[in-house]
TrEMBL record:
<dbReference type="GO" id="GO:0004222">
    <property type="term" value="F:metalloendopeptidase activity"/>
</dbReference>
<feature type="domain" description="M23ase beta-sheet core">
    <location>
        <begin position="290"/>
        <end position="388"/>
    </location>
</feature>
<dbReference type="InterPro" id="IPR050570">
    <property type="entry name" value="Cell_wall_metabolism_enzyme"/>
</dbReference>
<protein>
    <recommendedName>
        <fullName>M23ase beta-sheet core domain-containing protein</fullName>
    </recommendedName>
</protein>
<dbReference type="Pfam" id="PF01551">
    <property type="entry name" value="Peptidase_M23"/>
</dbReference>
<dbReference type="InterPro" id="IPR011055">
    <property type="entry name" value="Dup_hybrid_motif"/>
</dbReference>
<dbReference type="InterPro" id="IPR016047">
    <property type="entry name" value="M23ase_b-sheet_dom"/>
</dbReference>
């Protein structure tokens, strides 16, 4: 309760040029604790006010320096000197506290503030990941501002942030680099219909305006190729177990971000088939299909590396029914981002194991539906296979 009293006394000491500009004597704090309740009763009822000490200014600044608050200190001149009755003390104290609040209103203004929202792209091409970044800084009203000013306390109140893309709420998580920046990831694929999508961001703290915008998903043409499978492999459709386990894995959304920075190449081989490629299988066009990853041509037995830090959530074997994927390893990178490495000859990891970017997790093979030795790397965001290329570039949203 004595914070406001000590706050006012501080400006008084600044005006008088005392040596206590950055501290308070015991009797000041003691008196403040004794009679600060009245001012805090007033200030606590005005907690909706924004407060920023840098706006109020410090001694020597052009706005609101020590002398600007001189009359507040003078209001306590008699009480601090042992003069004046209790009624006068409380009256002067309450008046000074009200003045602090009014000056905060004057310098900062009232009303809700606009949200700081940034997108990786407002016009993403089909297949790109849309990253939505929202910056939420600590709330600072009059009471909290004074506490921070005097005791270096920086309250971190929780504010629920909701992001809606095309009318659907999407998960939001703090970034590993800065927990005051929240990120939501929206996948698009070659099958996404181009056109506008609504974006809305809400913060349930009563202090921010709702943000509304429009994302325009752009058309992108992907190449077409023809491949021929043997009679044996062309009959493979995948087992129910395989589809369920791989589907559950790619839909994983874990709260902690495990990856750190841009992803790296998982193989030294050349790209033989890019992301998004459409195909004719044995002369028949595959409708509603796109190549859900990148193929790297390499020799059987060549190393396969983890493209980013992750947790091994899936280790599948062709002999156990993984007819399409063959021997495979699935990595959870956090926040709904997963990698699956397919057609391996062998794997060197176990489920539950943590791996680092660049760590060798297996070798190239041609298990599952494959026409020759190669690595298939599929990168997924909340179950949708997206273009890995942007994830390998240095970008703020990664």
């Amino acid at each position: 309760m004595g914070i406001t009293f000590a706050f006012c006394a501080r400006f008084r000491s600044e005006e008088l040029g005392t040596s206590q500009n950055h501290g308070f004597s015991g009797h000041v704090l003691e008196r403040g604790l004794g009679c600060g309740g009245m001012s805090f009763e007033y200030a606590s009822r005005r907690r909706s006010l924004s407060y920023g000490l840098q706006r109020l200014g410090k001694k020597g600044s052009p706005v609101g320096g020590g002398p600007a608050f001189a009359h507040i200190g003078k209001a306590f001149g008699n009480p601090l000197d042992g003069k004046g009755g209790p009624a006068e003390v409380f009256e002067n104290f309450a008046n000074a506290a009200q003045d602090v609040v009014k000056r905060a209103e004057h310098f900062l203004g009232l009303g809700k503030r606009p949200l700081d929202v940034e997108l990786s792209s407002w016009t993403p091409a089909k297949g790109e990941t849309i990253a939505v970044l929202v910056s939420i800084r600590p709330r600072r009203d009059v009471v909290e501002g004074i506490a921070r000013f005097l005791f270096r306390k920086d309250p971190q109140p929780e504010a629920k942030v909701q992001i809606f893309y095309d009318g659907c709420e999407i998960p939001v998580f703090p970034t590993a680099a800065d927990d005051k920046i929240l990120r939501a990831l929206v996948p698009t694929t070659p099958l996404t219909t181009p056109g506008p999508r609504t974006l809305k961001v809400e913060v349930a703290d009563g202090r921010h305006e709702t943000f509304e915008g429009c994302v325009e998903v752009m058309e992108k043409e992907y190449p077409v190729e023809s491949i021929w499978l043997s009679k044996t492999k062309s009959k493979l459709r995948g087992t129910t177990m395989e589809k369920e386990k791989v589907g559950a894995f790619t839909a994983t959304v874990s709260e902690n971000q495990i990856w750190n920075g841009p992803f790296i190449l998982p193989s030294d081989g050349e790209i033989t088939t890019g992301y998004g490629m459409q195909r004719f299988y044995n002369g028949v066009f595959a409708n509603h299909y796109y190549h859900r990853g990148v193929d790297y041509g390499a020799w059987e037995g060549d190393p396969v590396k983890a493209p980013a830090n992750g947790r091994v959530l899936l280790v599948g074997k062709e002999s156990d029914g993984y007819e399409i994927h063959g021997n495979c390893v699935g990595l959870d990178h956090g926040h709904g981002v997963t990698s699956i490495m397919m057609h391996l000859n062998s794997s060197f990891v176990k489920e539950g194991e943590m791996v680092n970017a660049g760590q060798i997790i297996g070798t190239v093979g041609e298990t599952g539906i494959a026409t020759g030795p190669h690595l298939h790397w599929g990168l997924h965001v909340r179950g949708e296979a997206i273009d890995p290329h942007p994830w390998m570039q240095a970008q703020r949203w990664i």
